[in-house]
Each structure stands twice: as C-alpha cells, then as structure tokens.
Amino acid sequence: MSALDKAPLVIVGAGPGGYAAAFKAADLGLEVTIVEPELNPGGVCLHRGCIPSKAFLHAAKVIREAETSDEMGVTFAAPTLDIDKMRAWKDGIVEALTSGLGGKVEKKKIRHVRGRARFTGPKSLHIDLVDGGETTLEFDQAILATGSRPTLPPFVTSLSERVIDSTGALDPKRIPESLLVIGGGYIGLELGSVYAALGTKITVVEMLPQIMTGADRDLVSQVKRRLDKQFEAILTNTKVLGLEERPDGVAVTMEDKKGEQSSQVFDQVLVSVGRRPNVDGIGLEEAGIELEDGFVKVDALRRTTAAGVFAIGDVTGQPMLAHKATHEGNVAAEVAAGKTAAFEPRGIPAVCFTDPEVAWVGLTETEAREKKIEIKTAKIPWRSIGRTLTLGRDDGMTKIIIDPTNDRVLGVGLAGPGAGELISEAALAIEMAARWQDLALTIHPHPTLSESIMEAAEMFFA
Amino acid sequence: MKQEIRVPEVSDGVVKGIVIGVSVAVGDRVEVDQTLLEMETDKAVVAVPSPFTGTISAILVEDGQEVDIGQVIMEGEPEDGTQAAAPPSVQAAPAAAEAPAPTPAAVAVAAPAAKPTAGGALPPPRTRVTPPGEVAPASPIVRRFARELGVDIHAVAGTGPGGRISEQDVREFVKGVMAGATPTAAVSRPLPDFAKWGAVERQPLSQVRKITAEAMAYAWATAPRVTQDDKADITEIEAYRKNFNASAAPEAKLTMTAILVRVVAETLREFPQLNSSLDLAAGELILKQYIHIGVAVDTPGGLLVPVLRDADKKGVATLASELNTTAAKTRERRISPADMEGGTFTISNLGGIGGTGFTPIVYAPQVAILGVSRAEMEPVWQGTDFAPRLRMPLSLSYDHRVVDGADGARFLRRICEALEQPDELVMEDPS
Does the model's pTM come out above 0.80? Predict the structure, then answer.
C-alpha cells in the first residue's frame, strides 16, 4: 500500500459543498485534492436528488398542463408515457451537468482520488479506492463534506423493488399502480406529485398533524388544496406500524390518531422520512472531530474541533440543502486560504417544488409565534395578480413578515407556481436588511408574479 | 351557553372564501378578537376574530375548505359578559394582520441558537448596539468588510434608514476607535423623565465640572484600573512634622501632602513606568524624564489639580512652601491653566476629610494616582504586645495596561517604607 503525496488541502466528498469548496480553494491558489467515489462531482444533489427530481417534476408539469389546457381551447390526446425514455432523458441531464463539473476539476488541476476516505489521525486519511486498492493520504488542512443519506425507519429492514427510497424513486423502471409515500416532507410530496402525474395512485402518510412541517400553514394549505385532488389520500396524524412484502404488493399497517389500525396493500412504498448526516465510519474520533446533536460541531468559520479540519453541508446541521452547503464550502475554502470569511446568513431560502411551489426565507410566522417575536404580516392572494389568471391559475399567496419597530423585512413566504424563482428577491432583501418600503418602492415588471411581493409590501402603507 | 361562530361580512361583493389556516383547536380558550382562522377571498387574506372570550367546543371547517359568508365555522362556550357588543365583522382589511398576540413581557427574543464556537469567534463586542438575539442590519459585503477589519458588526451603529449599517458607518466606527473615542452609543442614552416622580431642578454644568466629567469618562473608558491598598506607619514622621511646624512660619508649614510629594517623586525615579504614558497606536511607552506631581485641590468651584514641577529635584521645605502658595492660589481661582498642565503623577489627599480608603481614577494619560485617607491610631502587634501606631491608608490606582500588579504593590510598599524612615526625608533641595 503506497501513500499518496501529501495534500495541502483535501476535500472529502464532492457534492455541492465539496466541489464549491474545491473550486474556490483552487481559485485562491491552493493545491486541492478531492476524495470522492463517483466519477464526477455532484453528490446526491446532481446524481440522485435535486436535479433528477426537478427533471421529473418538469415532465409532470407538462402532463398536468396538457390535461388542463382544455379550458383554454387547447385539447391534447392522453399522453403516451415511455418511462425508459424519460429515465434516459433524466440521465442525460445528470451526465451533462456532472461531466461539466468533472471537466472543471481537470481544468483547475484538482487531484481527484476516486475512493472513500476515513480519518486515521488528526492529519491522515485512509482511502479505499473504487478500483479495489487502498492508500493513505497525509494532509495539512481538510474539509469534510460527506453529506447525508435517507433515514430508514425501524420497520424498514431493507430496500427492494417495491420498498424504495428517494434514490430508487428517481430511477424508475416502471410506473407503479399505487404508491404509499411515508413522510409528508418536501421530498415525499415532490416525488408523490411526479408519480401522481404519471398515473400512480398516491397515498401520503405523515405522523405529524401537518404535511411539509416547517412551512407556515397558510402556505401549506395552498399546496394541500391541489394535492388533495391529485392524491388518493393524505393521512396526517397517522403512523406506519409495519410493512409486509407480498407477491401482490406491500401490505402496510397504519394507526391513526384515534388508535385505530388499518391495513392496505400498495404496489410500491416510498420511504421519505428524512435524511441523516454521514458521520459514521469516517474516523471522526481518530481525528478529534466532535459531534453535537448528531452533526459535526463547527463554528462560524466552519472549523471543527480538530485543528485544520473544516466541515460543511449536511454533516454540519439543518437545513440540509445544497445551496447552504455551497455557501459553506466557499466560506471554508476562503478561511483555509487565509482569508476572512464566515457563515452568517440572514436567511437560507427553502423551496418545495410541489405544484404550486412553496418557498420561504428568513423568519416564518410559526417560528415568530414559538419564539414570541413581535411581527406584522401582510398577505396577498395571487388571484389578485393579473399574471396568475393568464397562467390558467387562481392559487398562490405572498406573505411578508416585518419587524414593526423598524419596518425591516424579517421573512417572506410564497406559495404558487414559480415561487422558487421569486424567493431570491426576498432573500436579497433580507440579506441587505431592506425595509418593506424598499420592496414597495422598487419597480416590479408587469405583468409578472413578482408584483405580488411589491403589492404585499404596499399593504403596510395602510 | 353554546354559541355559533359564523363567517362575518368581509366586504362588498365577497360571498365566499377558502380557509387557509385554523389557528385554534377544540378546547382552546380564546380572547375576544383573537384570530380563529384565516380565510382567503378574491381580494384579500382576512382573519376571522373570535366574537367572545371563551372556549372553542367544535371546529366545523378545515384548511382548504371553501366557506360562504354567514356559514357556521365553529362553536364555542362564551364566558359571561364577554361577548363583543356588535355582531362580529371583519374590517375589509387587506391590511396587515397583527402577529398572534405576543406577550410584551416575553419579547426577550431567544437568540437563534448560535453555532458552537471551536474557539474562533470574534470577542464579544465592547458595546453591543444591535440588541442581543437580533442580527445587525447590514448587507453581506458590509459584514465581510467589518469582519476583515476585526470589527464586531453588532457594535456598529447604523446611520441608514431603520439603523441600516453602511460601509461608511464601519469606517467611522474604526476611526472613532483609533482616535481613542469610546465607540459607545450608551454615552448618549436618553434619560427618563425624572419629573414624573417628583420636582427636579436643572443646573447648568460649570466649566470645571464639564472638563472633569470628560476627563473621568475618558480615563474610565481607556485605562483598565487596579487599586492597590497599603498602610504606612507615620507615627514618627507625624511627630517630626508637628515638631517642625511648632516653630515654622505659616507659609513654611509642613503638610503631609508635601511630604508625600517628596516621597512619591523619589520613588518614581526607581519605578519609571509609573511616570509614563502609553502610546498604543505607536506601540510605545513614553517614559518622562521629568517628575511633575499634580495635587488635587478641593475648591468651591470644583476639583483642580495644580502641578508641582520637578518635585524630585526639590526638598520637602521647598515643596511645602510651594504647595502652600499654590493651593491658596488655586482655592482663590488665581491659578493659570499652564500651572495645571504637564503632570506625570497625581496625589489626591482626602485625609483631612476622613475615610478609610477609596479607589481613585487614574488621570489619563497619566498611568497612576495615589489616594490618601485619614490616618488613625491603631494597635499594632509588635511581637510581644500591641503598640499604638499612627497608620495612614494609601490607595494606589494604576493603568493595568502599563503597570503590573507586582510592580504596583512594590511601588506602594516602597512609599510606605520611606514614610516610616523620617531620618531619610530630604528637607533641603538636593544639590
């Protein structure tokens, strides 16, 4: 077993956090090594997360729009679905993006070691190479970016053709007749929407009283109204007690909040109860990297408790979002290069790409209530915005949350088609410490959905 | 008695809406006008308020349900006499809905759980302008600029709309710190209206008071002060002093302050760092090659500090007569500003008034001051028995940036020892 040349900076994991850190560090003149088993960077986000799911959601959107265009006087025949072709189309997108990143790795002269690394000491890694060998690597500085993976509840012992997680759902070989989505978070709802459009009967089961926990109820209600029509059922306050795979499907036993049990058979079951950080089996103890609440403990500079070792992305805590990881990656790379930087966002936008999309940034009304923060809100339904109706829609809502003492925008919540694209204006407003007047006095183009932000802000004049 | 709650009139032309959020649960106690649910209509999102204070006994609608104006949405049990006078109506208010009743007393916002520090965070701000738990209103690039300069953005006062912090504000903050000004917003904190609690009279500040206030505030903000206490046995020297004064002319009378000036001046030659000033910006200590002792004099117009020049080159006799003349001039306000400049060390003797000790404030940019309290006859253990000894409490305050604790203690001990050896007191001017 021969050791690799010592690395001034090694990055373990090349997802959106890891590759951002690698590129930034290389741009700042550091000699960078990445350790990543995949051929190309991209992580879960590009290979089996954000990007593939958005491709399928777009296909779903086309199907839905064709279905509802009848009232505009445009009638299509029922679509013919070729799941293999759809999958290949998705694979093409993933390939285009990840190989583009791979090209950037080469161009920036970043050393890519294909393998899985674990710490063997404060300054050393052991690497199991993808091609079968193993090696060691000494480093001066390291950035830990190993991401997260889907959590499996205790009643799921293993995945199969019928019992799948998000990875399986994003690589479909067939369209199931029926699908039980366990977990009403954004992943389950997005994937449920996709399969519903493809013709699958969807049932969602959620333990908590509300789907999409974390988002304000008024925003969620916008989605729920539509999903209620697309899905067979959304069962809140309901627990799954057990699964049993049978030749004809998966028999699922559930218990509602009154304690009544029922059993139902589904063609497939999608487990989407959350994600957990990849902090096990990577030698954190050997390196002296401490955990806190299951995540790697880091400071504002993204430094761990081990000198010279940074951590970024899903391993450092919630929210587990690619764009948070990317930002952290940039911070860690800059600090590693001796620059002054810190992770201190005023808001991290969250987007749920259901139809309608739900997006929010900064303070939510729910959080304000929990923490007893005094706020003032303005809400405006999108049906009062011209652009909404021209899109053949009547749903959507914009909500602005301000600090009544100084008029500063603390949070914005959006629900409606394209909400994910609109939230960036709100994120900028919050980062810039804008007041509602800034939003109200900025000319927004007509007719667009973005006018809803201006108009909601104008309501504070009253 | 059970009461139905209906969807109120919203505004002209609105006949229905969609429930977008039920804010209460069955069994909840609600206040009159508390929001029960929010409803989206063609025109606005409106809150439906409770018509009474009481308990909700049934909720007949759920999120996403379409409801008509006048439809029964909940049932409740009002408490007696709490029903709103008029039938419930919602102001056709697309206007901002208030946040769900925050308890004013509980607005102490929980700080968003700060990430753990593995030892790299900035030191806590000297004076936090932004309230704890709130983020400083500054754009990302301004925050980065502050971080690069080592400025805690929370300590910077913003001059923009709503207190927004600009890059210029950060520059001004740094300039202020470099110029030695205190970057405190707290200095100008508004005063309460004292007249609320009783009659008050406002008096203009005298010039002396203004200067004193400024000098003390500056000293307090810049010099981290330590006060070292000790006691000197002055039994012998006091006897000598009394004996000397018995035959001395009034203007030549020997005071304890004059003796202290002499002793301090002598000791300062041994401890030059107590006769210095700090130039932090230049990274230098300025050691003065002269010893000018300021003596605090209580005058009807306020505290004045005339300076006795080259005290180390003068004997006690000269210092005593100089001090007597100067003090008299000072009390009569006939002293010139030039006579109060250039001091390198200050003595403040309150022994004539009383007290057992105090903590003088260093007269910055000097680095040390000696406070003197009233001498008392005390029983002192002499090995076999107690003897009555006259002991004088001395309090040395020094700027801890310049003087270490051990040196401060040694300096003061040396002064005590000198006072205990009257034979060594230099009466005549040293040649």
Answer: no
CB-CB under 8 Å, B135 with A462: no
pLDDT of residue B16: 82
Residues of chain A with C-beta less than 8 angstroms from the C-beta of B115? 298-300, 317, 343
What is the mean pLDDT of the segment spanning A266-288? 96
Integer Cα distance of A101 and A89 in angstroms: 19
Tokens of B301: 């117009």
Per DSSP, the residues of B117-182 read -SS-SPPPPSS--SPTTSPP-B-HHHHHHHHHTT--GGGPPP-SGGGPBPHHHHHHHHHHHHTT--
| Alpha-carbon distance values, B59 to B4, B22, B28, B62, B87 (Å) | 10, 9, 11, 8, 19
Q: Where are the beta strands (DSSP E) in A171-260?
A: 178-182, 201-205, 233-235, 239-246, 249-255
Amino acid type, B313: K
Contacts of A377 in chain B (CB under 8 A): 96-97, 99
- In A319-365 the beta strands, taken as DSSP E runs, fall at 350-352, 357-362
Which position among B400, B410, B413, B414 bears the catalytic label? Answer: B400
- The answer to whether the CB atoms of B118 and A408 lie below 8 A apart is no
Q: Choose the closest CB to B64 out of A216, A228, A397.
A: A228
- Beta pairing class for A134-144 and A7-12: parallel
Interface test with B, best of A222, A225, A324 (most B CBs within 10 A): A225
Which amino acid appears at position B255 of this protein?
T
A308 DSSP assignment: T
A332 in helix, strand or coil? helix
Q: What is the ipTM of this complex?
A: 0.77
Distance from C-alpha of B325 to C-alpha of B328, rounded to nearest angstrom = 5
- Closest C-alpha to B100, from A454, A413, A216, A210: A216
In chain B, the domains with their CATH numbers are 3-92 (2.40.50.100), 102-192+205-222 (4.10.320.10), 224-424 (3.30.559.10)
- Does B93 have pLDDT greater than 80? no
The two tokens of residue B331 are 């009390």
Across the interface, whether the CB atoms of A376 and B98 are under 8 A apart is answered yes
User: Catalytic annotation on B292?
Assistant: no
Q: Each residue of B253-311: pLDDT tens digit?
A: 999 999 999 999 999 999 999 999 998 888 899 999 999 999 998 888 788 899 999 99
Chain segment A16-66, per-residue pLDDT in tens: 999 999 999 999 999 999 999 999 999 999 999 999 999 999 999 999 999
Inter-residue contact A373 to B107 (CB < 8 Å): yes
Predicted confidence band of residue A454 (pLDDT cuts 50, 70, 90): very high
- Cβ contact (<8 Å) for B96 and A217? no
Contact across the interface for A460 and B117, Cβ inside 8 Å: no
Q: Do B120 and A380 touch (CB under 8 A)?
A: no
Three-state helix/strand/coil letters over B291-357: CCEEECEEECCEEECCEECCHHHCCHHHHHHHHHHHHHHHHCCCCCHHHHCCCCEEEEECCCCCCCC
Residue B110 has pLDDT above 70, yes or no: no
Q: Which two tokens stand for residue A17?
A: 């956090």
Residues of B within 8 A of A437 (CB-CB) are 161
Contact B131, B154 (CB under 8 A): no
> Is pLDDT above 50 for A174?
yes
Cα–Cα–Cα angle for A154, A156, A157, rounded to 5 degrees: 95
Query: How many pairs of residues across A and B have Cβ atoms under 8 Å apart?
Result: 130
Cα distance between residue A430 and residue A419, in whole Å: 17
Integer-rounded Cα radius of gyration of chain A: 23
A432, closest residue in chain B (CA to CA): B139
End-to-end CA distance of chain B: 107
At A321, the pLDDT band (50, 70, 90 cuts) reads very high
Is B144:B122 a contact under the CB 8 Å cutoff?
A: no
